[in-house]
Protein: Parvalbumin
Organism: Manacus vitellinus
Amino acid sequence: MSLTDILSPSDIAAALRDCQAPDSFSPKKFFQISGMSKKSSSQLKEIFRILDNDQSGYIEEDELKYFLQRFECGARVLTTSETKTFLAAADHDGDGKIGAEEFQEMVQA
């Protein structure tokens, strides 16, 4: 399964266009434009599984940096500032990584 099986390719493209400039990425806005914020819990779990590149059950900081590239190969890498802000916003238990539940809470908030 790929992200385009769950999300519309045109919505993904619009979300990526919105954050092309460095330091312009807003997770909340990206989730809304891409359509992720409207998906069910089971769909969000599947999206999380796809984004968890090493299948560890967590999205770590090094994976977050490449978050946009999981949606499109040619997308930019998140800046250090964007990555740290994203992680801080989702990592509720302070373990330095984002679990599936934390991801789902952030997307649906």
About this structure: The chain has six helices and two strands. The domain at 6-106 is CATH 1.10.238.10 (Recoverin; domain 1).
